[in-house]
DNA sequence: CGGCACCCACGACAGATGTCATGGTTCGCC
DNA sequence: GGCGAACCATGACATCTGTCGTGGGTGCCG
């Protein structure tokens, strides 16, 4: 029996996935939570063999949780599950010690499959994403650039960002300019889109 | 036995929802499709009692499909299902003739419940969303403003939009200015965010 | 130590953006 | 017919944005 912990912020799909996995003879869902913060306590309590984590969650995101979980329960294998097949997510998930990566576009059978493989010590990779993550490369943005672009992505103006990060307006524009150039964009908005698509934010 | 058609672009969650609904004694999933275009043919073939449609789908979106389905199979009731509880989606879904509206945050039991209620002739509404849709009101943007803002949301500059819509740059700026003012925003980017949140795009 | 990368800042400039005033057209409605 | 709403357009203006050059500070590595 493979003990599975489920983490996804959308209760409906979480319940649905639990139902689907429950149909499998060798899989047992022992816990399901809706936020990143709940994962660790639930995992300590239920000792799952595999944790299925959504990347996007309110509060602590799945990637951070994956790393923490790896430290707290080294025997528990992690499968990341996400709506968006962004190359950056993939690489970051692997860096955070995930053993598998499944996009929500994949055929349903893939999920139970991935859980079994990961449980038996194998790694489950999405070949398309793996290729993309090689071509798109690692995050080219420096920490400051990422921070500034992130703020801009939420609709903040230069003045807003400058105030929030205690910088001068000129410096903010410099960082934005660098980010725009590194993403091969021509506008701030475009840079945001590209960075988001690659999971660089 | 309630015959249900499932439409959601993410195969994994579609399969999971099918599995969950399959556990219910009185519900039978007779078709499941991944795009808006496939809905009508599948519905004609399988004659479902209830269609569960995701709002966001590649190609034809769920709201359009709902209206078409209402014309083609008037006996088939429609439940809209979506990740984002945007007030505009709710009102548009109701206008398109949907009988129910479920957000993916809702507890899993709600889904089967909603299907049963809708099948028995009732309407299923999300009280929170209904309230929001009253306060946020109907789409204040004119068709042109919506069109221009939509283009801007995809990262296009004024010049790009002007070229795409065969307008002068000044006109585009005027429409954008009007949209910004109507959304109580101060920037184009902010206007986009607000409009998206309300489902006005 | 001398590079090198990153961070911060200032100034200046072209171009884009948001606002406003003004004027034209069409269409539906009282 | 008069009126208002939506559409398109122009020109002018203040402001914001993106770019570039320059300079100074830190820390790391060969």
UniProtKB/TrEMBL annotation, chains A, B:
Domain Response regulatory: 3-119
Keywords: DNA-binding, Phosphoprotein
Cited SUPFAM superfamilies: C-terminal effector domain of the bipartite response regulators, CheY-like
Residues of the HTH luxR-type domain: 134-199
CDD domains to which the protein is assigned, alphabetical: LuxR_C_like (cd06170), REC_DesR-like (cd19930)
Coiled-coil positions: none
GO-annotated molecular function: DNA binding
Domain of life assignment: Bacteria
Residue numbers of 4-aspartylphosphate PTMs: 54
Record-given protein name: DNA-binding response regulator
Lineage: Bacteria, Bacillati, Actinomycetota, Actinomycetes, Streptosporangiales
């Amino acid at each position: 029996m493979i003990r599975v912990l489920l983490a996804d912020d959308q209760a409906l799909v979480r319940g649905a996935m639990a139902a689907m996995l429950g149909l499998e003879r060798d899989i047992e869902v022992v816990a399901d939570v809706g936020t990143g913060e709940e994962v660790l306590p639930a995992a300590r309590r239920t000792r799952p063999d595999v944790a299925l984590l959504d990347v996007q969650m309110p509060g602590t995101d799945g990637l951070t949780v994956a790393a923490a979980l790896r430290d707290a329960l080294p025997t528990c294998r992690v499968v990341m599950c996400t709506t968006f097949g962004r190359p950056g997510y993939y690489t970051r998930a692997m860096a955070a010690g995930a053993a598998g990566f499944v996009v929500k576009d994949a055929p349903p059978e893939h999920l139970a499959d991935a859980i079994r493989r990961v449980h038996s010590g194998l790694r489950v990779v999405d070949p398309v994403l793996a290729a993309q993550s090689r071509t798109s490369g690692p995050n080219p943005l420096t920490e400051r650039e990422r921070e500034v672009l992130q703020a801009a992505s939420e609709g903040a103006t230069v003045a807003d960002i400058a105030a929030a990060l205690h910088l001068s307006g000129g410096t903010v524009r410099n960082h934005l300019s660098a980010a725009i150039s590194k993403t091969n964009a021509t506008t701030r908005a475009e840079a945001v889109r590209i960075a988001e698509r690659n999971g660089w934010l």
